[in-house]
Amino acid sequence: MNHTISTPLYRQLEDAIRQDIDTGKFAPGSQLPTENELSDTYHVSRVTVRKALSVLSDAGYLERHSGKGTFVTEKKMQRSINQVLGFTEMCKILNTTAGAKTLKIALEDPTEKEAEQLLIQPNQQIILLERLRYSDKRPVLLELNKFPESFSFLFGENLTDASLYEALKKYNIIFTQSRKTIDIIFASSSESKLLEIPKGHPLLRICSIVSNADGSITSISQQLCIGDKFKFLV
Prior knowledge:
The chain is an alpha+beta fold. It has helices spanning 9-22, 35-42, 46-58, 87-93, 112-117, 164-169, 189-195; strands spanning 62-65, 69-72, 77-80, 98-108, 126-135, 138-148, 175-186, 202-212, 217-226, 230-233. It is elongated, with a radius of gyration of 23 Å.
């Protein structure tokens, strides 16, 4: 800390800790040194340390838990709820690595509601694609997409650690519009196992009806997102 300049010491300390977080010295989820340790390391008072930590907590960098300590906030996946944005593209924006594991791809009979949503006849089949999505190798959401049978080309696509949107673009299918509904549910046993969270953990459920550039309905989807890993902008 530079005691000879006009910038307050707590601001200097705030900048130093923020830089350590941004460069990965303090990883997401890790515990910071105690106030006493920070005071000794940076040669400032505990009052200065406490003020700097308070500012960083208000800014969303830190979480302070009484009796446990101060922890670096886990990075949240941020997206606009009004934007049609693929998971892979969202990870690129956040400078994280997207991953995907295909759990199931199959033909099945649609429900009456699904046939109505996809504008197909009830006697036609639909394609179900279920994937587990990862960010920096950590599971963050379960993705269930349903398409008309005309999307059978997906059976020939390798969708492991790949962007579904990029695969569809090869067939001139570009998602431009979606209607979404959002609610909160609680993880079942199977969902908690896949997402590596406790049973009953809150999940954001996002149900979407997605349209192609020509206005035709291309898919209906459901995403189950770990509630505390995402932040949505309206």
